[in-house]
Amino acid sequence: MELIWDGLVKAIIELVTLDPGITEVALLTLQVSGAATLISVLIGIPLGSVLALSQFPGRNFLVSISNFGMGLPPVVVGLWVSIFLWRSGPLGFLNIIYTPYAMIIAQAVIASPIVISFTLAVIQQINPQLRLQLTALGANRTQMVWTLLKETKLGLLAAVMAGFGGVISEVGASMMVGGNIKGMTRVFTTATVMEVSKGNFDIAIALSILLMLLAYSVTAILTAIQQGRNIR
Amino acid sequence: MFSKTKWLVLTVAFLILLSLVGCANKNPKPAEEENKAAEGNKTADIILATTTSTQDSGLLDVLIPEFEKQSGYKVKTIAVGTGAALAMGEKGDADVLLVHAPADEKKLVDSGIGINYQLVMHNDFIIIGPKDDPAKISGLKTASEALKKIAESGSMFISRGDNSGTHKKELRIWKSAGITPKVGATYQETGQGMGQTLNIAEQKSGYTLTDRATYLAQKKNLSLVILVEGEKSLLNIYHVMQVNPEKFANINARGAQAFVEFMVSPDTQKMISTFGVDKYGQPLFTPDEGKNEADLGK
Q1: CB 3.0–4.6 Å: which of A58, A180, B151, B243 could bond A190 by disulfide?
Q2: For the purposes of burial, counting CB atoms within 10 Å of the CB of A17, is it exposed (0-12), middle (13-18) or buried (19 or more)?
Q3: B19 contacts chain A (CB < 8 A)
Q4: Single pTM value for the model
């Protein structure tokens, strides 16, 4: 119990004093996971919409792949992204292994299937009558998709939150492709693993509390947008 | 009517973009690095593949910032087991290695991949275990006797099991004891770094082989005590080497050479000799620059 107390005290001290080392870790965590989520949204919402609204051979297979991808283990993603980005790998010339860019790529791979599958599910769930009605009202394809996306705001924001939650909490991929380099690729999860292996349990607890605070803050903002009653 | 939501969405998008820009600004290296590498000039980063013990003991936290200040290179430290570190060197995925499994290191040097191979420092391995010492190994002269007794008494032994320098050393001791350990109820492999393995041994009240530095750094959390120490074969010797730039593309040879030179420079050796004294009352490593490996421990 004393350990938890020590960790709590440490977390509060670090938060109040804005410890520069911790601030750096917090910012990087937000940047990497925020960028990865943004990319996965840019990929996932269009792809999910297309999958939901069209019929073509092989569609069901793609949908099952995306649904399977929601549970893609981060370490597997980390390993494969590493193999490609290592200097000895096919993309080694890019020189981005052990940089935040590599982490963003890995996290975007993890989050994209989540966003695709959520988007697909919420758009498919809309009453088909609505689409019929919109077409009858003379909506063109863009107008229709836009209306459907607005109609599914609740679900789409859930997709964003699930994607963000998935990547800010993962450690396997970040550790492998980022390397937990101090001041460069050290994020909350990898720092926590390291402090545990160093035996600094109080610092590890403090980090875990700060990570949860950060994740909650972002989710709270997204929830505020989701629950806003302004769109009709 | 939905202007408020629009604003919120815009704000969030803006914040994310801002953070992306910040991200890009803070790490302008990859592009810069590529240009420089193309010119065959000094690149900004070196990749150091090393063992978990140098990170978990805190030594690198002291040495790396000093090296970065002196040389202007940025070090990407990848702390893995020695087996993995050597493999990274073998594939040209690292520029410089700081490792502690001499027998395996020699293979890399003989194959021409490891060059500028230098002795840096040593400490020693110790066998630790629960205070009541069920296998009665306390004070035994040799590690192989100790492992034999642990096996015979059916006591729990926690192995790294990760192909690290410490794990390789442990396997060698089992071999000299004439025992082939089998994973089971009393011989367990963690597959993790030394720090984490100590935590597990502590929770399971098991015996384990550890380097002294990580043990001292973790001692505040441990009730396990040192039971066998001092045998010459328990020396834990660290070497540094650079990866031969003629064998692979993209190796930062100058940075690697600078790091090797830094590790054996008198100032660094002095820092190593005093590292840990303030915290643990004794140094965690003994600097060995210029010594003969065969003379260590005499």
Answers
A1: A180
A2: exposed
A3: yes
A4: 0.81
